[in-house]
Design a protein that fits this description.
The chain is built from 2 helices and 9 strands, in the order H-H-E-E-E-E-E-E-E-E-E. It has about 140 residues and is α+β, with helices and mostly antiparallel strands. It has one domain: Peptide methionine sulfoxide reductase (Metal Binding Protein, Guanine Nucleotide Exchange Factor, Chain A, Beta Complex). The strands form 2 sheets. It has a 6-stranded antiparallel sheet. The protein is globular, with a radius of gyration of 14 Å. The model has no long low-confidence stretch (mean pLDDT about 95). InterPro entries: Met_Sox_Rdtase_MsrB, Met_Sox_Rdtase_MsrB_dom, Mss4-like_sf.
Length: about 140
């Protein structure tokens, strides 16, 4: 189980860039095709931009053609939480960081094997830690 990181809205505003704050704390989204991780294939781990929680291994990333980086599964079952999202006239499953509750994107049941899932994430909600470098959680 992941230790929770809970900060006030003011603390989040100080810690995050305006774009990170909009996505992670206000459930915003990047424009399709604009994210810095869309075409990357560098080995490593994608971590939450808000707290450093490991989220996805680069080896589970695939090109979905949707305009956002997509993954077949999180790094561990308890790395993310999933919540029903009924905004924008749709029923979707929102994906949040299990440690800081930051909005990452959505998961859809139309991905490739082995899971059949497509974790469609916002690049701004993540940072990439190259393979071989230590993963470090943000301290409170």
């Amino acid at each position: 189980m992941v230790d929770k990181l809970t900060l006030s809205d003011d603390e989040w505003r100080k810690r995050l860039s305006p774009q990170e704050y909009e996505v992670l704390r206000r459930q915003g989204t990047e424009r399709p095709g604009s994210g810095c991780f869309l075409g990357t294939k560098t080995p490593g781990t994608y971590v939450c931009a808000g707290c450093g929680n490991p989220l996805f291994k680069a080896g589970t990333k695939f090109e979905s053609g949707t305009g956002w980086p997509s993954f077949t599964q999180p790094v561990a079952p308890d790395a993310v939480t999933e919540i029903q999202d009924v905004s924008h006239g749709m029923i979707r499953t929102e994906v949040r960081c299990a440690r800081c509750d930051g909005h990452l994107g959505h998961v859809f049941p139309d991905g490739p094997p082995p899971t059949g899932l497509r974790y469609c994430m916002n690049s701004v909600s993540m940072k990439h830690v190259p393979e071989g470098q230590p993963l470090e959680l943000v301290k409170t």
